[in-house]
Amino acid sequence: MNLEWLLNLPRKELFMKITLNNVIPHPLESINKSSDSLWGNLIELNKGKRVILNASSGKGKSIFTTTSIGLRKDYIW
């Protein structure tokens, strides 16, 4: 496999970004969502940046983690 093209990319292009735009997992469809919620808003995760998930029980912290790394597929947008 020839990866020479990878060496020519600008450094910023090598970093991964995960964008969730108006994503709501089916198990959380009925919860109230606010403007500071992960769910139903635009969220961007950038490689090398840390994220703190702080919410009460049942608000989707574990669902967010498993959705953002691709282990869950039960979401709507």
Described by the principal axes of the CA atoms, the overall outline is: elongated
Sheet with the most strands, sense and barrel status:
2 strands, antiparallel
Q: From the alpha-carbon coordinates, what is the Rg to the nearest angstrom?
A: 16 Å
Low-confidence stretches: none
**Tally of DSSP helical segments:** 2
**Share in β-strands:** 15-25%
**Strand order within the widest beta sheet:** 1-3
DSSP strand tally: 4
Tally of separate domains: 1
Structural class: alpha+beta
Helix % is 10-25%
Query: Which H/E pattern describes the elements?
Result: HEEEHE
CA(first)-CA(last) distance: 36 Å
- The overall average pLDDT, rounded, is 77
Describe the model.
The protein is an alpha+beta fold and 77 residues long. It has one domain. The chain has a two-stranded antiparallel sheet with strand order 1-3. Strands 2-4 form a two-stranded antiparallel ribbon. The chain is elongated, with a radius of gyration of 16 Å.
Write a short abstract of this structure.
Helix content is 16%, strand content 18%. It has helices at 4-7, 61-68, and strands at residues 17-21, 24-25, 42-46, 75-76.
Descriptive tags:
77 residues, alpha+beta, two-stranded antiparallel ribbon, two-stranded antiparallel sheet, 2 helices, 4 strands
